[in-house]
Amino acid sequence: xxxxxxxxxxxxxxxxxxxxxxxxxxxxxxxxxxQSTESSIFSLSPTSPRLLDLSLTPHEPIEIxxxxxxxxxxxxxxxxxxxxxxIEGFNITANEFYGIYITNTTKYFGIHDCYINEFHYxxxxxxxxxxxxxxxxxxxxNNNKSIYLKDSSHATLINNTCCNNIKDGxxxxxxxxxTLINNTCxxxxxxxxxxxxxxGATLINNTCxxxxxxxxxxxxxxATLINNTCxNNNNDGIRINQIHSADTLTNNTCxxxxRNGxxxxxxxxxTLTNNTCxxxxxxxxxxxCSSATLTNNTCxSNTYTGILLGWSSATLTNNTCxNxxxxxxxxxxxxxxxxxxxxxxxxxxxxxxxxxNYEGNIIHHNAFVDNNLAGASQAYDLKGGNFWYDVSxxxxxxxxxxxxxxxxxxxxxxxSIDPYPLDEEGTPYFDTTAPVIDHPTDISYEEGAIDxxxxxxxxxxxxxxxxxxxxxxxRISGNWFGESIVISIDGLDTGFYxxxxxxxxxxxxxxxxxxxxxxTETTTEKSRFGMVTVPLALIFATMxxxxxxxxxxxxx
Length: 556
Description:
About 10% of the residues lie in helices and about 40% in strands. By secondary structure, it is mainly β. The strands form seven sheets. It has a 16-stranded parallel β-sheet that branches. The longest helix is centred in the last third of the chain and has 33 residues, at about 525-555. The chain is elongated, with a radius of gyration of 40 Å. The chain starts with a helix and ends with a helix.
């Protein structure tokens, strides 16, 4: 008797909970925080999801080509924003072209709690008035495309399931500013969600796994993507291909995709925050992107690269690229990038690899821990012209294999170094020992003589640059790698000259030496002057004697 009573109470509880779920709205809220600690809250109250059950009413395919067709079918509602027509609770299963087809309407309508199976298009909405369409809690499977919206902007799609389709789960073409929330689009033969030319979309909490192409594919579309899961897809988790539009990607999970976790190409000003991209070929790939910002992303255990930047400029802060990536970050022909406070740990090769014909990248206050254990350095710089330290503060990066003395050497043809490596407390290394320099003897030569040189032989453990001035003006300057400094002093006019050579090390310690150069008149010029003046003197003397002789004759 007690067992029957308990069973009865249990059944009544299930029925009561089911009724409660069907009659109450579920409020979903998302709190997205940025670095400034300000937050924005997006909330909505969708109808609760309902699985396919026997209560769904079998129905033939629905075709609506004008506003009057809604009343022809007898759907509830008036078509106003506060009282839309509702197409609800139908099981539409047939082998035809459309399950539900709606076009050229101006009234508000919703498709709720329907099951649509085995059509070319499960739901096809074309050229309806802006903001009038909503699709909620419906299941569209085994179609060519489950849900296709064309030229129907500001649409709302919530809690739909679009799986096992020949092409895409959800496809939006030129349907701007649409909202997609809590949809599941997995196991499709093309993309889970495909937005082509549909800028301004907002995608939140969608699941797009195990698709044969990409989880989410945005072509010529800008979007805000928050809390989406796009994993185990055959190509990319999230792929965005467009020109000159900014995207926001926050808290997305893109793991175990065969190509890239997130792939962004031809975008400007995009922001990627708190995304997780593990176990892909590349975690995050940016190509031909400008002014991107990547913050707090995790890109671990990817086959090749945690984050790859090609022909791009970006600011990367507080990202983690660790645990078995081939390289943590790979820069290819990218310039004006800033890397600060990132963690590069236990990557098989380099924490940062720069192979670029461009320069001007700045790398400081990053932690390089146990990367490239088989090599001599945890970073690589092919061309140089990049700064591996904060120029204003003179603070570099933490290197777990730094010896504790002197700069840290970077692999690559550039011969780059981090002159101010940080210890575990973040204190930069700094050398206070000035270079040394010899004093060549002062030089004197006749004007016009050749092969006159001054040779200085300075020395320092960390040479950096030099300059040579003449009479207070810098005449020559350049990089100094510890070699002798030799300058020609030929071609000077007669006079006195002061040459000063100053050498600097990486820590702005310097030393100078002064050499005085005297240039005298040439011996040849003096000889020529003598050859001219002697005959003149003889002529003058002869003339004088002649005048004296004449005077004496006159006096007689």
